[in-house]
Amino acid sequence: MILDRFRVTGQVAVVTGAGRGVGAASAIALAEAGADVVLAARTTDQLEKVADQVRSTGRRAHIVAADLSDLDRIAALPEAAVEAFGRLDIVVNNVGGAMPTPLQQTSTRQLEDAFHFNVSTAHALVRAAVPHILDTAGGGAIVNVSSVVGRVGGRGYAAYGTAKAAVAHYTRLAAADLSPRIRVNCVSLGSVLTSALDVVAQNPEIKTAMESATPLHRIGDPEDASAAVLYLCSPAGSYLTGKVLEVDGGLQTPNLDFGLPDL
C-alpha cells in the first residue's frame, strides 16, 4: 500500500525545538509513523507534554532540555539518541528564529546571532549526526526548516531572512556531499499559527490581512508543516534530496511587516 511508504517504523529521530509548534508537531507525526524520538528544546515542562503525546502512540521518547544555541549541546544530541535507542536515522533541524527589526536598527551582531542560531546550529547537528546515520543499514534523512522570508522580500527580515536563505542553500550543498546514503531536504514555511504568532491570532485585523495575502486564504497550522517533514523523512520521499519544499499556502509576496516604520 502507498500509505506504508509514509511509515518510519523502528527508526530513531532527533527533533530540535520540539517543545512546541512545528517541532512538537513533527515529533508527534514521526512517532505516529513509527519512530522513537529524541526531543530537544530549552523548556522541560514543554518537552514533557510532547513526550507524553509521543508515548501515547506506543513509541519511546527521550528528553534533552538544553540551550540549543550552544553548539556543543546540540552536537551532543546524536550520541544521546544512540545511547537511548541504539541508533539514529532521522534529524529534523527545526530550532531557529530571530525577531523582525528594521534594517538600520539591525546590528552586525544581530545578523551574526541569527546566522548562528539558524545555520551554525544546523551544521553542528548534521556533522555530529552523519557518522551515526551511516551506521544504519539503509542510511537516513535530514530535514532542515527554512522560511518563506528566505526567498521573498519582507520588511524587517534582513537578519532572519538572510539566515533562512542560507539554511535552504546549505541544504542543497549538504545533500550533494552526503548522497547517496543520506538525503537532505528542507521545508520552507510560510505563516504557521504557533505561539510565535499569538499576536496575530489575537488581532483580527492583522490575521485577516495575512490570510488575504495568502493564495489559500488561511494561515498554516503545525500539522501542515509536520506532514511535509514526515514525507521528506519517510520512504515516500526517498527520491528527493537537495530540495526545498515550500509549505506556505502559495505565498509569493510578503504578508506582514509588523508595523515597522518607513525609513
Automatic annotation (TrEMBL):
InterPro entries: KR_dom, NAD(P)-bd_dom_sf, Sc_DH/Rdtase_CS, SDR_fam
Native source organism of the sequence: Rhodococcus gannanensis
Protein known as: SDR family oxidoreductase
Keyword annotations of the record: Oxidoreductase
Domain of life: Bacteria
Claim: Oxidoreductase is one of the keywords in the record: yes
Ketoreductase domain sequence ranges: 11-196
Family stated for the protein in its record: Belongs to the short-chain dehydrogenases/reductases (SDR) family.
Coiled-coil annotated spans: none
PROSITE patterns: ADH_SHORT
Pfam families for the chain: adh_short_C2 (PF13561)
